[in-house]
């Protein structure tokens, strides 16, 4: 049963500390029937309540493995959809605030991808020659599109492996929605920039000539993350001038120039593990979301590691931050009363096809 807005209004003005106590109490009452999953970008006052944490790939495995009845997902909409698709049909996935979306995921939609496929069919046979690859940061219907067309899903921690698999199937890839992850991963495989033109979905034929399409190995959808685009090569240059021994690590959603100027590039889980395993006394510049960087700066201080945020600006995933203690308390206390609010349920036909593409990814990335 869905609660109405008036019910949430009672939580809106609750202080964070009060919410924290009520979340702990609700969790105790719910016991093992409920599990809270949180992405690494989640704000500290929510992350502290998580039973399971991870990057998108790890959270996908965890969601597929848990036998809890209720999965309360503290992340963004596409992550909750993945949890629903990979969990059993009896399990219920809850996103405490439905407006927690991903602006990058919104840069591609089914109508535009289908149009691209139709336009490509004027030049080549896409079903014979192109593997569609969607970054996990995309809606379930795009994952279903990939499932239906022999394609696959990737995350930031397995993109190169997934591209290798994709090229073993067909000679080209249509990669959406993040051009930066696609470009960096293609570059890691030795592809040139000319072999990876951008598909501008607002232009007829993606703004490309038939010759460009013919020569392309990866067609990069013109999408990006508004958080990661804030990091600039000059931030790295300034850091290196100040700290010649310092190390730079970035998320592959950063621009090609930032990735190239970094010492290490990888997913949120990779970033945490790399710094955790580094020598005590090392200094790091980190190009990813602020909540995560602030958390590890604090956590690894005791190991003598100095961790600096890459941008002078505040770069936060403001949509993920919509999952606040008030919404978490609201959804958990409703569950205690036997009410499910904000359930994420992917329609069965779509879920079936999306599951194909997701399970292929999980198998390939093992
Ligand atoms: P990860 O796969 O590293 O968790 O990244 C997901 C994401 O949305 C980064 O912006
Ligand atoms: Fe989406 Fe960017 Fe937020 Fe990641 S950081 S969830 S890509 S908006």
From TrEMBL:
Q: Where are the transmembrane segments?
A: none
What Gene Ontology terms describe where this protein resides (cellular component)?
Answer: cytosol
Give the binding site residues for [4Fe-4S] cluster.
Answer: 102, 225, 317
Q: Which cofactor does it need?
A: [4Fe-4S] cluster
Q: Which UniProt keywords apply?
A: 4Fe-4S, Cytoplasm, Iron, Iron-sulfur, Metal-binding, Pyridine nucleotide biosynthesis, Transferase
E.C. code: 2.5.1.72
**What's a GO biological-process term for it?**
'de novo' NAD+ biosynthetic process from L-aspartate
Instruction: Tell me the compartments it is located in.
Output: Cytoplasm
Catalytic activity, as annotated: iminosuccinate + dihydroxyacetone phosphate = quinolinate + phosphate + 2 H2O + H(+)
Q: Which GO terms describe its molecular function?
A: 4 iron, 4 sulfur cluster binding; metal ion binding; quinolinate synthetase A activity
Question: What pathway annotation does it carry?
Answer: Cofactor biosynthesis; NAD(+) biosynthesis; quinolinate from iminoaspartate: step 1/1
Entry-linked InterPro entries = NadA, NadA_sf, Quinolinate_synth_A_type3
Q: Does the keyword Transferase apply?
A: yes
Question: Which Pfam families does this UniProt record tie to the protein?
Answer: NadA (PF02445)
Q: What is its main location?
A: cytoplasm
Q: What does this protein do?
A: Catalyzes the condensation of iminoaspartate with dihydroxyacetone phosphate to form quinolinate.
Similarity-based family: Belongs to the quinolinate synthase family. Type 3 subfamily.
Q: What is this protein called?
A: Quinolinate synthase
């Amino acid at each position: 049963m869905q609660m109405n807005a008036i019910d949430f209004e009672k939580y809106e003005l609750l202080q964070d500390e009060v919410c924290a106590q009520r979340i702990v109490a609700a969790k105790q009452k719910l016991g093992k029937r409920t599990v809270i999953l949180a992405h690494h970008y989640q704000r500290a006052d929510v992350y502290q309540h998580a039973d399971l944490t991870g990057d998108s790939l790890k959270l996908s495995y965890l969601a597929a493995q848990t036998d809890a009845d209720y999965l309360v997902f503290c992340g963004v909409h596409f992550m909750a959809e993945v949890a629903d698709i990979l969990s059993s049909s009896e399990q219920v996935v809850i996103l405490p605030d439905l407006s927690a979306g991903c602006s990058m995921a919104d840069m591609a939609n089914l109508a535009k991808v289908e149009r691209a496929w139709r336009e490509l069919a004027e030049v080549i046979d896409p079903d014979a020659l192109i593997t569609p690859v969607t970054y996990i940061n995309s809606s379930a219907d795009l994952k279903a599109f990939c499932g239906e067309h022999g394609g696959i899903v990737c995350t930031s921690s397995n993109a190169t492996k997934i591209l290798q698999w994709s090229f073993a199937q067909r000679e080209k890839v249509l990669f959406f929605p993040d051009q930066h992850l696609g470009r960096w991963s293609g570059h890691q495989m030795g592809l040139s920039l000319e072999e990876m033109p951008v598909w501008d979905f607002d232009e007829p034929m993606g703004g490309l000539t038939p010759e460009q399409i013919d020569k392309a190995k990866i067609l990069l959808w013109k999408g990006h993350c508004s958080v990661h685009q804030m990091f600039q090569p000059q931030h790295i240059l300034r850091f290196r001038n100040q700290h010649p021994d310092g190390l730079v690590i970035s998320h592959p959603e950063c621009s090609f120039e930032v990735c190239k100027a970094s010492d290490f590039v990888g997913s949120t889980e990779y970033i945490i593990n790399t710094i955790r395993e580094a020598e005590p006394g090392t200094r790091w510049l980190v190009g990813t979301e602020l909540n995560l960087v602030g958390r590890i700066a604090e956590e690894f201080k005791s190991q003598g590691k100095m961790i600096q945020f890459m941008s002078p600006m505040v770069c936060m995933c403001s949509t993920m931050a919509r999952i606040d203690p008030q919404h978490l308390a609201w959804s958990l206390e409703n569950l205690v009363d036997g009410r499910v609010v904000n359930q994420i349920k992917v329609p069965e036909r779509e879920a079936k096809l999306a599951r194909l593409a997701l399970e292929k990814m999980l198998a390939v990335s093992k």
